[in-house]
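Q: Second attempt. The first request was missing the SMILES, so the protein and zinc ion are both included now.
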Amino acid sequence: MQFSDVIGQTKISSRLRDSVRSGRIAHAQLFDGPEGSGTIALARAYARYLHCENPSLEDSCGVCNSCLAHEKLQHPDLQWAFPFFKKDGSTRSVSDPFQIMWREFMLESSYIGIEDWLNKIGADRKQLFISVDEALEINRKLGLKSFHGGYKILIFWLPETMRVDTANKMLKLIEEPTDKTVIIFVSEKANRLLPTILSRLQTVHIPKLKEIEATNGISIITGVSTDKAAEWAHITDANIAAAIRLSRVGSETPDLQLFSNWMRSCWARDGEGIMNGANEFASLGREGQKKFLSYGLHMIRQCILGNYGVNSLVRLTEGEQSFLSKFQRFIHEKNVVALSAFVEDAHKDIASNVNAKVVFFDLSIKLHTLLRIES
Ligand SMILES: [Zn+2]
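A: Got both inputs this time. The predicted holo structure:
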């Protein structure tokens, strides 16, 4: 991953290269931006540029030993941290059992989200985090001498998944840096970081891509036509990671089937349909349930936008459009506020570990009453 492989973000790329050439390299940095905007891609290109033996004004050289090692993600002075789960039977909770999968994951794409990582490691039902053991291990690794005499770089993905005790261990490393170390935190929700950590990081704000840039990137990465890429860029709000997911599932999200069946059952007060939905919902695991409810909220909003004729803002796949063309008349100004509030409450209940089937049933009854209100 070089700067020339990063989709859009040319101003930020240029600023990062300038900072390296002028020697203004902050020891602890935060790349803060939404999923699919290229935060990881930028961190990788920047790390490679820092290590490159013969960088040009525009990019790393691509041919030196360092560049070749980066290409295969085998540079000994590049470390990775990311959320994971504790394997059954292991005494210490460290990322070692996941590092090979992580490397494969990174070689597949730099445009990723937590959902892709959950799928990769088969952790659908597990909560991911970064443990204290892992923070200690990072301290140990960064305390070692650099292999090639240059910078020791750590790219730390989703630091917001650190627990407080882990964050405190990382704080020590940030406050008392070891020699020639660069830590790049790559975050989607920087406001969840401890203020004591946040205040010590040099932040690079990475904006979401423009639709035209995302279109170009999606077309290059997935190989679809420009028209299709433009459609996906629009549906995903220029999130390349989400567009890659669409390309894998044949452009329909599995959530749509569950959501459309559920809405039909709720409207008809079809007990058997609701029970089937509850079973399917329960089988998604906590992260999947939260994601599904967020999807429900997204669909409710799209109904309202559609009703008001704001079609340029509606972000839907073909299947979703076809479902909503029939469904959106049931969502209107007399029920939308209450509907959204109930779905948000259910999301909070799931996050607090309330029984998934109970949440689903309860919400279904409320939705039935609201969907029956005439506009
Ligand atoms: Zn090079």
